[in-house]
Write the structure tokens for this entry.
Amino acid sequence: MRIKEHPILGPLPVAKEVIIIVDGKKIKAYEGEMISTAIVASGIKTFRYTSKKKEPRGIFCAIGRCTDCVMEVNGRPNVRTCVTPVEDNMVINTQEGLGIWENWRGGG
Amino acid sequence: MEYRRSLLEKTNGIITLEKIEKYNGYPSEERFSKGPVPIIECIEEIPCNPCETVCDRHLIKVGKPITNYPRLIDPDGKCTGCTKCITICPGLAIFIVDKTYSENEASIALPYEELPIPVQGEKIVGIDRAGNSVCKGFVQKVLSRKNFDRTHVVTIVIPKEFADDVRYFKRIDE
Amino acid sequence: MKTELAIIGAGPAGLCAAIEAAKNGVDVTLIDENRTAGGQLFKQIHRFFGSEEHLAGIRGFEIGNMMLEDTQKYGVKVLLNTVVWGMFPDLKLGLSNGNMVSVIEARRIIVSTGALENSLSFPGWTLPNIMGAGAAQTMVNVNRVLPGNKVLIIGSGNVGLIVAYQLLQAGAEVIAVVEALPEVRGYQVHASKIVRMGIPIITSHTITRAEGDSCVRKAEIARIDDTFKVLKGSEMILDVDLICIAVGLRPLAELCWMAGMKFDYLPQLGGFVPLHNENMQSSIEGIYVAGDVAGIEEASSAMEEGKLAGIAAGISLGKIVKKQGIEIINKAKEGLRALRLGPYGDYRQESKEKIVHHYYAA
């Protein structure tokens, strides 16, 4: 849920809207924000499932240190969504275990 | 939320009037009769003194070391109620109580940093330090100044007998 | 790449070190792996304590803005999105930025990499929406999203108490703050504030388990005795959709381990802390430490330690006249002593003295 008005921070700054595709579904996001921000704003809590027990995981540290929030982004697994900004038409998928590297076409 | 009441009963961490009297001093009824009085409710030795720095009339003393308990030195009632001390305190621990508001009522000016900002005339319930609703009242004034840096000063009016206890409020329909 | 002073981590300690050194003519390169500088300063929307010199009464993020302006003013070179993956005893640093890897040679280094939140294990602790209190603070104050609406906070130190207040400001309902010890751990003023706002602080209690599916839905809390044993029959189930763990921080000192620095274990300062002397010089000559990495305290102390380390490095580089430098160092030391007074500071002052003592004894 986005905090539209905040007593100290004021109103949400105006930003350009972009679309990201999360597990096949189009989700509204704003340029400059982290992937995890858009995911949380859309109501999704689970970011990935663990390898052995298939347990759901989400955000823990939110500052890029713990890797609990990783998802597959544009085919590349293990992307820390709390420190990676969204891009228009970014394809994001809930990661299963360590992810599938075969879909990654390489690059940053 | 039935469990809320039982949770509130188990609560720790409330500053009491006894502790305030001991560490900060509590104004006498004579002082209260002279007009608005800043009440500082800061009962631990924390290195902090913006309340001392901000008062233009130098009525609040901390001294050195800056862990000293802040005390109000204002026997003659020089406080003008400018509320700078209310808004600068990082602990939101300063209030201005005016027992001369009317024969049966007192006003309490307190720091407020939530939304929505209350509106003058709004009916409220006065809340004590333990979070209990203890009386009814209304919002007399809301001060929002740029140099208060987003801390509003809300003045509520309540029955005088609760002036030593009420330090927060909520809207009647909340 | 060469630089006189490389500073790793652009939080309050690193920023203050960079500004002090650059002010005095040192060639400074400030490196941070994040997209913006400021460390944890920008999620601090509350006013800081301290004295006028410590910028008391000013909100953390405003202090952050002031410092960012100063880095520009004094010509500090800032490398963002840059990970320091290696620190070597010959004062070289391995950097990577995206896919580009490089090495920087520094004449002096300051490590100001900050800290990481501790976690607490209990059945269900890995469920989504069980996160650090600092993480929730980042989500609401920096990212402007509320991850949950009914919150339970574990831990009544200043982080737990402040985050409780800030979650209320963000529109959440905070069900309770739970504390294992018999008394509130953070400032009484912070505790009092949230209690009068209707948030119970339950001491001598702990969380025994969390339940949920794609997200946490319920938490069970129970009373514990002074051996931390759960008292049967005292269990309560709370409806929650967000649990914030506020059980302390520990230094992020991997680079220090890697370079071979000497450490000491001080639970009062968060765990393993690199040894340093009174001028923040570590056991490796030419490498200094400052801020939470040198022991968990607060932003104000991080700023003073940063200043200290920046000037100490500048003096040792011959860029700052010793006499003036020592004046500034003494002022920073006075500032630190003032912050480490009182019941919340005494144990930190003691621990820091222990570290300095061990530095010279080792």
